[in-house]
């Protein structure tokens, strides 16, 4: 049983190796054919007059630059789409920040006395304290109670 299993594995590996070799041979044949075509085109170009060689060279350069421009246009479109997406995200985050800042300025009633007490404490530490205090009218009883205690 083990020997048969090993033989089967060996045959599978041999088959895979042969398939890989065939694919590589096909690839090599295609590359050789392409190389021959390029060599023939090069030899034909050398046989042409210098003016025609220059013209062909210019045509090839124009083709290369056109392809490069198309690639750059495609990249530019992708970047513009990405920019729009990022701008939308920025607007959303700015709105969230504004909402958060607005929610921080509207402090719940329970939080106000502590803030006022902190402001009072800070004002007391300052040397130019003038004895004036800003507070909400509804916080007056709580402020008085805190001052007494």
UniProtKB/TrEMBL annotation:
Keywords: Coiled coil
Stretches assigned to coiled coil: 3-103
Top-level taxon: Eukaryota
Stated name of the protein: MYO5B protein
Organism this protein belongs to: Nicator chloris
Lineage: Eukaryota, Metazoa, Chordata, Craniata, Vertebrata
């Amino acid at each position: 049983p083990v020997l048969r299993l090993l033989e089967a594995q060996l045959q599978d590996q041999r088959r895979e190796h042969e398939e890989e070799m065939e694919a590589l041979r096909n690839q090599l044949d295609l590359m050789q054919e392409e190389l021959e075509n390029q060599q023939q085109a090069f030899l034909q170009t050398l046989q042409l007059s210098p003016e025609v060689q220059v013209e062909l060279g210019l045509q090839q350069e124009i083709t290369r630059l056109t392809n490069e421009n198309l690639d750059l246009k495609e990249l530019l479109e992708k970047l513009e789409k990405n920019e729009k997406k990022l701008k939308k995200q920025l607007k959303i985050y700015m709105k969230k920040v504004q909402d958060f800042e607005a929610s921080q300025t509207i402090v719940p009633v329970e939080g106000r006395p502590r803030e006022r007490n902190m402001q009072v404490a800070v004002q007391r530490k300052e040397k130019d304290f003038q004895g004036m205090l800003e507070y909400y009218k509804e916080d007056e009883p709580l402020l008085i109670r805190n001052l007494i205690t």
